[in-house]
Amino acid sequence: MTLPLNITVNLNFLIKNKNIDGKIVQVSGRVFTLSNLISFSRFLVAAPVIYLHMQNEYEYNNTIVALILYAGISDYLDGLVARKTNTISEVGKMIDPISDKLCAAALFIYTVWLGWVPLWFLVLNVFRDSFIMIGSSFIKVKYGKVAMSIMSGKIAVNILALYWIAVFFFRDAIQVHNWLLYICTFVMVYSFFDYFNRYRKIMRGAKFN
To answer: What are 68-79's pLDDT values in tens digits?
Structure first.
């Protein structure tokens, strides 16, 4: 069955003009906002955690626990503050995922160096994040704005954090480490293809925040 030409044209128009983020969000060009400061500060957590851990003979202490708790809370707090204060910005859309990736990369490089995390997992993570960032840069060049993170990517970040916490703080829970490693690998691969599918839609003209 073939649809009439006018219906086909209207369907294509609706598909192209539908916002793939669900709802339209007002995004500003502001740089110095509280939410952006919170996002940036998360990147600064990795260095003192690694330094303190090495100084404490590779054992964690209360300061390290507090820093990791701050990193986790700030990952939710920056977005909450941005939404509540209407300060979602293009800079914030870049700083938030970059801070996540740089902080996670530093902490995972350290645990790989300690022999607690397999090297192949770090390599997979680096390649995944690199391709996602390259795709984001192409979108930025074409449209002049950055695409927001998607739900599967946020879930992947959370499971990644759980895996690192389990490995770092609960050294004897080997079975838990293995399960989280497999789950994290699956979700990371799934979210990569989810990002790729979204990239294709945006490059073909889909609207996004």
So the answer is: 999 989 888 888
